[in-house]
Amino acid sequence: MNTAVQKAQQITWVGFAVNLLLAGLKFTFGFFGRSQAVLADAVHTLSDMVTDLFILIGIKFWSAPADKCHPYGHQRIETICTVGIASLLAFASMGIGWDAVQRMSHPVCPPLSFVFIAPLISIIVKEILFRRTRAVGRRINSPAVIANAWHHRSDAISSIPPLVAVVAAAMNPKWAFLDPVGALIVALLILKVAWEIAAPALAELTEKAAAPEEIQEIEALALAVSGVHSIHRVRTRRLGAGTFVDLHVVVDGGISVYAGHEIANAVQLRLLNEGPAVVDVTVHIEPDEK
């Protein structure tokens, strides 16, 4: 097992344990403290646990080497896991939001004042977990781990409305209606995060090209190779954390096949070593007709 996989598993297991403890804390305080907003926040934390399982199970598959059935590797599994994380967040947000709207049409009992402890602890702990998980995700260049980090951040943010709602209701029972309002705000925040996670993964699944600035960098690196007259038909696509590139390189038409092959190798090596997250390059050599 490589170091990147080990780091991803370690930070995800930490997240799973933390989410388990926080979910239990929020359910206990939300139930006995009569707070729908805190219970909604507990559901969000449970969805965090599910995404942790996505990572722990999926990483064994997407980190597997290429084989005959998957000659380009298994990184698409990571993309699918990322979409799965976003989908779970979206479904959780819709359920929480619907329940909150239903409760707004009925009298609301004010939550008990001690309930604020649960969301306060969650905000602090999940923000720390977000920073640690994001750091690991960036270090190993894993979109799924980074997505999971943002799920932790969304949990921290979603704990703010329950905290405000509980404190306000404790100060004045007439403000008890803020509890389901807080739950609805949580649902909308979760839905926003779900889309932010899903958008780049869906772009990858639809074979969207790399960012324009990355393509410009790839073109500049290829043109800087000795013997390259020009390039065209530069095509890119994302696969997991890496970029696949294929391009046509124009060289002097009078050189040998061997010399052209050496130029193609030089272009390939430069892009692999210096290109923006480039993991595979296909170079097609064409003669300059001038």
Features:
290 residues, mainly alpha, Alpha-lytic protease prodomain-like
The CATH topology of the largest domain corresponds to: Alpha-lytic protease prodomain-like
Radius of gyration: 25 Å
Total of DSSP H or I helical runs spanning 4+ residues: 9
Q: Which sheet architecture does the biggest sheet show?
A: 3 strands, mixed
Q: Given this structure, which CATH class of the largest domain is correct?
A: Mainly Alpha
**Mean of residue pLDDT?**
82
Low-pLDDT stretches: none
Strand order of the largest sheet: 1-2-3
Structural class: mainly alpha
End-to-end CA span? 52 Å
Q: How big a fraction of the residues is strand?
A: 5-15%
The CATH homologous superfamily of the largest domain: Cation efflux protein transmembrane domain
CATH architecture of the largest domain: Up-down Bundle
* Fraction of residues in H or I helices: 55-70%
The arrangement of helices and strands along the chain is HHHHHHHHEEHE
Principal-axes geometry comes out as elongated
- Strand count: 3
